[in-house]
Design brief:
The chain is mainly β. The chain has no helices and 11 strands. Strands 2, 4, 5, 6, 9, 10 and 11 form a 7-stranded mixed beta sheet that branches. Strands 1-3-8-7 form a 4-stranded antiparallel beta sheet, with no helix packed on it. It is globular and about 40 Å long. The N and C termini lie far apart (about 40 Å).
């Protein structure tokens, strides 16, 4: 079992920044990759980005590339999503999820691949 808790969401003006955290507990932290997803009202959940088990590989959706950065601190069992230059279209509930992949360098963008999910944190960007 893996428990994930997101934090750091809130309301920010366009062009601003937020840093989301995903605190993990349960299984050994380095045994799973972490993905970030988001879901806006009446839209499907979409992949934002992810980081491999080792932390050596990251992957981002084209819509956030160059603006968002994912990092992991294995000592704190925490993954961070730094979001800069936020846009109103980034407004959504953001979720982190754990993929119990056997491959240390893999980041998968497919929602169904992920085994455990957090409860989500709301990010709202005003224009």
């Amino acid at each position: 079992q893996v428990q994930l808790v997101e934090s750091g969401g809130g309301l920010v003006q366009a062009g601003g920044s937020l840093r989301l955290s995903c605190a993990a507990s349960g299984r050994t932290f380095s045994s799973y990759a972490i993905g970030w997803f988001r879901q806006a009202p009446e839209k499907e959940r979409e992949f934002v980005g992810g980081i491999s088990r080792s932390g050596g590989s990251t992957r981002y959706a084209d819509s956030v590339k160059g603006r968002f950065t994912i990092s992991r601190d294995n000592a704190k069992n925490t993954v961070y999503l730094q979001m800069n230059s936020l846009k109103p279209q980034d407004t959504a509930v953001y979720y982190c999820a754990a993929d119990l992949t056997p491959y240390p360098g893999t980041v998968v963008a497919v929602t169904s691949t992920y085994d455990y999910w957090g409860q989500g944190t709301q990010v709202s960007v005003s224009s």
